[in-house]
């Protein structure tokens, strides 16, 4: 009898242990289930859906080139898998482990009724397996990474299969186009199309380009105006490439790669956090944040979302995000900190916006980084360390980055562009929502209130 291979955020053929293991035993039925019911309020955002559409098309093409195909269905994963197993006579379902709380629930529901074989392969080490000497999970990144680093390198990646045995008859499939993952009107995805090539082949192209640049990663990774980072995040999120593949390719490139690999380690760390705190997306991990006097301002939230705060570096980042579905990490920190500390708007509002607009929107990475920035996380920055956006913009030499994303400021000289004086501010560019010093005082006062509440 055939086995079902249940694809989720692991849309690749090479180094895909669920696929390899199932195909070793006999015919396989690869399936992707478009399932908003299981994730509920964590259903994929708009930018992720755009990505998913392309990635599923590529996966289907790649499977077809090996004599197989992708069956696409909609509905609740456990029900769809049950029905498909009955229809096809499949006795086993193979999948990779996923750690989002809704996926863990779905896995449990499937396993109650069917033989579900879960494999590791989306992280450097199985989340939950990196523990202290006493067997407890780590709370803090640095010791986590030290322990994980000792277990590296990860096992060598599995080769891409050369042929995939097909079942005698193929079950029915929806058409990918009918899933309605793409935006209709307005079509906001032009910038995404120009920036990305979703799919396994696109992921490997990014990786080879980055191998040439990894030697300068440490020096350039904080400069938003340069292409100094890998831009692999959406590919890693959708599992079009595995972290083990990235690790081995980068290690072969040689040179100093530790800082880069440490960032890939943050990805594992974030899974280790959501395993311990499944509701990390809604619940701040530290006490004072249960009573934080957040402000509510629809207008200011909207100004932030649209890149109209009057702080050029923040606006550039938010517009890069809207246009490309991605934002440079340094600017993510600045823009997130600005929302939380300058505008005193609840980090969960920002997290939600990123969830909808990032092509790499990832439950672990997004919530861990938002709580880190807010100071509410188990391992985080302190709330009272308030980033000065204008100083950051100068320090990391963001003038060309601002010129690209805030074109109305493009003619200002380097000395003016980070903080245009009212006399030089072009018509149409907004005044600052709040002055930096005033924002700082207000944030510190709010923090004192939260602590005494
Ligand atoms: P590189 O610098 O080339 O790093 C390589 C890989 O390491 C990345 O692709 C990513 O998978 C991982 N990585 C790097 N930095 C981090 C980090 N701080 N935390 C976790 N993993 C990391 N990253 C996401 O993948 N999804 C998110 O939803 C997300 N939300 C974020 C929200 C905020 C407020 C902040 C400050 C950061 C967020 N990040 C998120 C982390 C980071 O900004 C992105 O992973 C990074 O910018 C992706 O670009 P890159 O692939 O060029 O990274």
UniProtKB/TrEMBL annotation:
Signal peptide: none annotated. This is Deoxyribodipyrimidine photo-lyase. Keywords: Chromophore, FAD, Flavoprotein. Belongs to the DNA photolyase family. Pfam families: DNA_photolyase, FAD_binding_7. Residues 1-124 form the Photolyase/cryptochrome alpha/beta domain. It comes from Novosphingobium panipatense. It comes from the Bacteria. Its cofactor is FAD; (6R)-5,10-methylene-5,6,7,8-tetrahydrofolate.
């Amino acid at each position: 009898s055939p086995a079902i291979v249940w694809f989720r955020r692991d849309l690749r053929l090479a180094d895909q242990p669920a696929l390899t293991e199932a195909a070793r035993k006999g015919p396989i039925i690869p399936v992707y289930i478009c399932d908003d019911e299981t994730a509920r309020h964590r259903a994929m955002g708009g930018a992720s859906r755009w990505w998913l559409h392309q990635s599923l098309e590529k996966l289907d093409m790649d499977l077809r080139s090996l004599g197989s195909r992708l069956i696409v269905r909609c509905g609740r994963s456990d029900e769809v898998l049950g029905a498909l197993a009955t229809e096809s006579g499949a006795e086993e379902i193979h999948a990779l482990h996923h750690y989002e709380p809704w996926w863990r629930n779905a896995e449990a529901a499937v396993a109650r009724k069917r033989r579900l074989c879960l494999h590791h392969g989306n992280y450097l080490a199985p989340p939950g397996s990196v523990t202290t000497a006493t067997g407890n999970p780590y709370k803090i990144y640095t010791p986590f990474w030290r322990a994980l680093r000792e277990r590296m390198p990860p096992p060598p990646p599995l080769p891409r299969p050369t042929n995939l045995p097909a079942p005698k008859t193929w079950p029915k499939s929806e058409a990918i186009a009918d899933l309605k993952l793409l935006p209709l009107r307005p079509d906001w995805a032009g910038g995404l199309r120009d920036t990305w090539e979703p799919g396994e082949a696109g992921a490997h192209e990014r990786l080879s380009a980055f191998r040439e640049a990894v030697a300068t990663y440490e020096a350039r990774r904080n400069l938003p105006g340069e292409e100094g980072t890998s831009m692999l995040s959406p590919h890693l999120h959708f599992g079009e490439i595995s972290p083990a593949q990235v690790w081995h390719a980068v290690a072969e490139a040689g040179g100093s790669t530790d800082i880069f690999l440490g960032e890939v380690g943050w990805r594992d760390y974030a899974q280790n956090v959501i395993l311990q705190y499944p509701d990390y997306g809604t619940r701040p991990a530290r006490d004072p944040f249960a009573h934080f006097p957040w402000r509510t301002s629809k207008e200011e939230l909207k100004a932030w979302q649209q890149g109209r705060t009057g702080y050029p570096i923040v606006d550039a980042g938010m517009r890069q995000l809207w246009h490309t579905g991605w934002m440079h990490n340094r600017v993510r920190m600045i823009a997130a900190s600005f929302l939380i500390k300058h505008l005193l708007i609840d980090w969960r509002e920002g997290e939600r916006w990123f969830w909808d607009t990032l092509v790499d929107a990832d439950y672990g990475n997004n919530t861990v980084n938002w709580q880190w920035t807010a100071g509410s996380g188990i391992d985080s920055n302190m709330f009272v360390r308030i980033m000065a956006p204008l100083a950051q913009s100068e320090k990391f030499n963001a003038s060309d980055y601002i010129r690209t994303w805030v074109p109305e400021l493009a003619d200002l000289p380097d000395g003016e562009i980070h903080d245009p004086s009212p006399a030089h501010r072009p018509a149409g560019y907004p005044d600052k929502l709040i002055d930096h010093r005033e924002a700082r005082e207000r944030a510190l006062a709010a923090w004192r209130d939260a602590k005494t509440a």
